[in-house]
Every structure is written in C-alpha cells, then in structure tokens.
TrEMBL record:
PANTHER family in the cross-refs: ACID PHOSPHATASE/VANADIUM-DEPENDENT HALOPEROXIDASE-RELATED PROTEIN, ACID PHOSPHATASE_VANADIUM-DEPENDENT HALOPEROXIDASE-RELATED PROTEIN
InterPro entries xrefs: DUF212
This protein's name: Acid phosphatase
Lineage summary: Bacteria, Bacillati, Bacillota, Bacilli, Bacillales
Length: 151
C-alpha cells in the first residue's frame, strides 16, 4: 500500500468536501457541485501536496531526496494555484462582464452584434493566498495524522 499517495488523495477529497459547507457559510447557497470544481477554500491542490510532503518528511526525513522532490513539487503547485490560475480566473471575470455589456449595448443599438454564449466562462479557477494557506494547513494536519496512524 502506498500510504503517502493515499494520504494525499484522501486529503484532496477532504478539501473538496469542505468547500461545500464553507461556501454555504460564505454565500448562504448550498452548492454540492462545488465538489467537482477548482478554486475556493481550502485549496485541494495545496492540501494534497502538503499532505504528501508532510508524510514524506515524517517517514523518510527532511534530508531525503523524496522530501526534496515532494516539497519542490508542492511549492510549484501552490505558486501556480494562487498565481497563474488565479490571474486566469480574474481575466475570465472580465471577459464575462464584457459579454454582458455587449448584450446591454445590443439592446440600445440594434447595429451592435454579439453572438450570445449559452454558458459563461468558468470564473473559479485559482486561489487566493488564504485559500492556499488553508489547504496547506489541512495537508499538514492530515499528513501528520496519517503518519501517526501508521506507527
């Protein structure tokens, strides 16, 4: 059994599940479909890689190559989650707003044409820094708990 991988994947599932009640507390809306979406609190990306790195650190030691690999991989994933993917989400919000503005202009000026999309682009792509931190803390907890349960 590959305990580090199971720990990371289980932590991702826990993080995705936690997004539903956290979103309900923030917005008042119960949206179970959030389980299958990216973005939101906590970051499942951060949670998974942090759980993996934590388990490896406790099991193999911080001087091991395994820990170095999992940590560098994890830092890249977390940077990407709050950096590039977050910026993509922000850009998507602007594109959706432009589409709505074009629809309004079309109502005022019939010569303005806009091919209407049936669905808006998905805006929830990346993470705020606190969402990444929340995921990292969850991963630290679950990685430690999983290691302790194997002893």
């Amino acid at each position: 059994m590959n305990r580090p991988m199971i720990t990371a994947l289980t932590t991702i599932g826990i993080a995705q599940t936690l997004k539903i009640p956290i979103n309900k507390a923030q917005t008042g809306k119960w949206e179970p479909s959030i389980f299958f979406e990216t973005g939101g609190m906590p970051s499942s990306h951060s949670a998974g890689v942090s759980a993996l790195a934590t388990f490896v650190a406790l099991d193999r030691g911080i001087s091991s190559v395994d820990f170095a690999l999992s940590t560098v991989f994890g830092l890249i994933v977390m940077y990407d989650a709050q950096g590039i993917r977050r910026q993509t989400g922000e850009l998507t919000i602007k594109v959706n707003e432009m589409d709505q503005e074009l629809e309004q202009l079309n109502g005022m000026h019939k010569q303005v044409t806009n091919q209407e999309r049936t669905n808006q682009l998905k805006e929830r792509l990346g993470h705020l820094p606190e969402e990444v931190l929340g995921g990292a803390l969850l991963g630290l907890f679950t990685g430690t708990l999983s290691y302790l349960l194997t002893r």
